Amino acid sequence: MKRVIKSNWCWLMGIALFMAACNNSVNKQETMYTCPMPQDSVFSDKPGKCPKCGMDLIPMTDRAMHNSMNMTDSTQSNVKAYSCPMHPQVQSDTAGSCPICGMQLEKTKSVTEPKAVSLNTLLKPSNQQVIASIPMVHMMEREENIEMESYGFINYDTRQTGIITANFSGRIEKLYVKYRYQKISKGQHIMDIYSPELMTAQENLLFLLKNDPDNTLLINASKQKLYLLGMSNQQVNAVIKSGKANYAVVVYSHYSGHIHESNGAAMNGNQQTTMNPAASTTEELSVKEGMYVQKGQTIFSVFNPDKAWVLLNIFTGQAAMVKVGDKVRITPETNPSKDFRAVINYIEPVYREGNKTMTARVYFDNSISKIPIGSQVKATIFAGDRSAEWLPEEAVLSLGLDKVVFVRNGESFLARKIETGITNKHLVQVLSGLDKKEAVAANAQYLVDSESFIKTN
After folding, report:
1. Could you tell me which residue ranges the CusB-like beta-barrel domain spans (predicted)?
2. What is the pTM of this model?
3. Tens digits of per-residue pLDDT, 51-96?
4. Would the pLDDT of 378 be above 90?
């Protein structure tokens, strides 16, 4: 009997010890501690302080522990089996092609696979190598239709510029142009000039006609001199008919357009002076009645606003792509509805003073559109097709003069400098520094710390 009681007692003790061990295990599982700040992701099996923020660790409930353990599984279950190497946002459960670029979808690497990161990788500075799990893309080779944006402005076509000059020295008796940019027409009366030289030439002709009418050689020579001094055939005939020399000779315009005062048009007595640069911003003319003009002096320039050209700024990186004959769409910023098509007619072979861009000229007829001279324009240049290797614009980080991508290196990303070409439709041309088989971060900005300076090898 004692032996049976002793045996039962041993069984009871064993069961009690087993239950105590189970309780201990449950209690240990339930007494996990975490930081109140979830973003710190600090967990411990005993109370203490958070090593990141210094706050006291708090016990975790069963539900919180369960959610924390299952968060990764829930996230991983949403990852699709296939994605596009150029557009990682395109994902699918089945194989197929990308609806954006047409490339075949590639199988996504399972995120449930264990990822081992070496200590050497962890110890590298964060401005040189980054450990992250973000979408990746590969460099893609294909033919792209190149469209480049450029900016510029509308200006007068200087090939159509006319000038009004003084063919003889004299004094301005009457001026019919009152302000800058005044519109004039061909044949319009511009000014009356008194010239002693012209008066003498007229009197010589009248003297020959009166005293030696048969001397046609001298008479024709006198007429020719008046023509060379700027008088028209009609004016010379009027002098012969009236028998009197004109005191002042009328100067007419041979062009239509807007009046612009020429540099050096301002006079003071018989001395020519340089026009004040500030005068170009006012409407007042420096040429006045009573002023003297010199023989051969340019008094006014006439610009025709109906004959204009667009001056486009071409950056150095685009210069190799742009050529004469390329089609272009011009959109005036003042009136976008008046956009028009044209071609590049000329590319200036030099840089203009103070500019770091080359200038392309686009000639056009402004008689219908009537776009004001000086209007800013936006242009789209169609430079044809080009086959090259491309990366999405978001994958390339600009560091001023350098361009950087983050190349996949095991389970981390390594910053690498690359040589780039043009940017077209949010794609960047890669010239060197990257292999087709290498994967890079789809968005380089995600791997940049605001306080870091990127270091490349």
Report:
1. 309-374
2. 0.58
3. 766 777 777 654 444 444 444 444 444 555 788 776 677 788 888 8
4. yes
Tell me the CATH number of domain 163-301, given options 1.10.110.30, 3.40.190.10, 2.40.50.100, 2.30.30.100. 2.40.50.100
b/e 429-439 (16+ beta carbons within 10 angstroms → b): bbeebbeeeeb
Going by C-alpha positions, the residue among 382, 191, 378 that lies closest to residue 288 is 191
CATH fold for domain 120-144+386-447: 2.40.420
Q: How far is the CA of 230 from the CAs of 193, 242, 376, in angstroms?
A: 11, 19, 40
> How many angstroms separate the Cα of 329 from the Cα of each of 108, 332, 378, 433?
42, 10, 8, 35
What residue segments make up the domains of the chain, in order of their start?
1-29, 120-144+386-447, 148-158+306-385, 163-301
Per residue in 190-245, pLDDT tens?
999 998 888 899 999 999 998 888 888 999 999 999 888 878 888 889 889 988 88
Rounded to an integer, what distance in angstroms lies between the CA atom of residue 93 and that of residue 215? 108
